[in-house]
Amino acid sequence: MSIADRTATIPSESAVAAPRVVSIDIFRGLTMAVMIFVNALAGVDGLPWWTYHAHEDVNAMTYVDMVFSFFLFIVGMSLPLSIARRLKSNPSLPALGLHVVLRSLGLVVLGLILANVEYADRARMPMSGYVWGLLALLSAALYLNVYPKWQRFGAYSTVLRYAGLIGLAVLWAIFRRTTPSGHEAWIDFSYPEILGLIGLTYLAAAFLFILTRRWRWAPAGWLVLLTALSAFSTARVITWFDHVNLYQWPFGDGSLVSIVMAGVVTSAIYLGAGAKLSVRRATTLAVSFAAIALAAGTVLIPLGISKNRATPTWCLYSIGAAVLAFTLLYWICDVKKRTRWAFFVHSAGANTLTTYLLPDFWYYLMGAAGLTFYDTRFNHGPAGVIKTFAFTFFILGISWLVTKARVRLQF
Q1: What's the DSSP call for residue 409?
Q2: What's the first-to-final CA gap in the chain, in angstroms?
Q3: What is the residue extent of each domain of the chain?
Q4: CA angle 67-118-352, nearest 5°?
Q5: Which pLDDT does position 242 carry in this prediction?
Q6: pLDDT surpasses 60 at 199
């Protein structure tokens, strides 16, 4: 699925930092806003089928099914930029590898917190699941926050980070749940939530990218191989992945990693547009790439269309849609320099992890306080949609406030 002679050129450790692509931040912010909206809308009934995730047994996909894949695509778009910046500041590959592993581990830990809150057993713990989740996220925030410098007490950030780390360790130690068989158990590692899936997929994609970063065709080549792996796995030609989990093999069946690698290819196209290629040439390459992805997805329709089954058509249709969406944003925001319209997602795009966790902070806080007004009212039809829009802008507003207050979570 390689589409250009110069588009797969990725900055190496000696490369000059690429010019900032504003549309990446706006794309990330819009995706975050849609994620908040669709997650909240899932609790509203009486709406058309396309406003929810398509059922696993149905060969279909809705716009809701593309939110996660857009996140993965954006991870891929940012990957070459972040790797180039880190290698420029520190050319040590072992240090880079450690950073990638720790970042992935951090996302998995956060994902496991979010995934286990609902299973917390108050009878076996000194606090409710809501309180446990709220304290765990606050501890994580203390550890992950990017603190401003303070001349009077330069070590304050270290003290707060250690406090957060100790808090996380204690909260993980006291967590208890009850298994279906009635036995006491600790954290359930079976599903690390979306954040954990992103972390493990990032680990796999970063491993491939770093090892082959000097080869201009490598990202497109990996994309083709990963798509083939996904197709053969879905067709049950390859069944080896049935016997391993993502912790052992973060590549999975190749489907999620293929979406990240498509983001790497797209990033290469637009880095080329800023340095070597004309905007018209880059746009032509991007649209051609999207057309190839959509055509390949159509060919593979007999294997099914499903987000939950991570079929290759779902991956390829998501890739095609993401490339076209980003191409439009690039033309509007970076070429025409029209960015004011996106003011409402600026903080979500620049302070993404914080914004991602804000709805969970809200739900846990309401649960811990025993407040049920929001959850039990306006959960049907148009009234539910209005409530969901209001909640989305409320979270975006909180994101703006905490960003202004210099609260920014980052690995």
Answers
A1: B
A2: 32
A3: 22-118+194-404
A4: 35
A5: 79
A6: yes
